[in-house]
Design goal:
The protein is an all-alpha fold. About 70% of the residues lie in helices and about 0% in strands. This is CARD domain-containing protein.
Length: about 200
């Protein structure tokens, strides 16, 4: 249950893009009842509202049901629909410290990293537009996870300067999840820039 609670924002952002598919899977796996399904599947509700209610419902059923949901989210077919779910696996490591933790400190949960990335991207907009040089590598990563469209990618690619490319990329940021993924890729491509800017936070 604690894992669901920690990753609630991440799951809402990720799953709300196709909440009906999620509801169908949780019912098929007997995580919720038919009555639950009917109560949750309200046409007037947004995808975000449906997922919020679903997670609250599951957490209300106890630890065993929460574990069933987490297990369901590991299914390949769901991870093909929601590629961001692959990030969820890092929260399920054993308490034993990993080499990454020894090198870089504790591994952040997807929700925590997404929240930090959202804040980082918003706060350092001007500096990132001026200083990010690996724009197309980041765009490649976002496109591969279907977080930007081919049209946006082509527009970024056609821009003459890295600054203009970054302005277009910022224009395409339409959710916390996209900003979080941008932050994650940027840490891989330009770690020293991220460290430099984070010291200012």
């Amino acid at each position: 249950m604690e894992m669901l609670r920690k990753n609630k924002v991440f799951l809402i952002d990720t799953l709300s893009t196709d909440s009906i598919i999620v509801l169908q899977h949780v019912q098929n796996d007997n995580i919720i009842t038919k009555r639950d399904y009917n109560n949750l599947n309200q046409p007037k509700d947004t995808g975000e509202k449906i997922i919020i209610n679903l997670l609250d419902n599951v957490m209300g059923k106890g630890e065993e049901t929460c574990q069933k949901l987490l297990k369901m989210l590991e299914k390949k077919e769901l991870q093909e629909i929601f590629p961001q779910l692959k990030e969820l696996s890092i929260t399920q490591q054993t308490p034993q410290q990993t080499s990454e933790e020894r090198t870089n400190g504790p591994v952040m949960t997807p929700a925590a990293e997404q929240s930090k990335g959202f804040e980082f991207v918003d706060k350092h907009r001007g500096a990132l537009i001026q200083r990010v040089t690996s724009v197309m590598e980041i765009a490649d990563g976002l496109l591969s996870k279907q977080m930007i469209t081919n049209e946006v990618y082509n527009t970024i690619q056609a821009a003459a300067t890295s600054q203009e490319k970054m302005r277009i990329m910022y224009w395409s940021f339409n959710s916390r999840a996209v900003k979080g993924e941008f932050y994650r890729i940027l840490k891989q491509k330009q770690p020293y820039l991220v460290q430099d800017l984070e010291q200012e936070m």
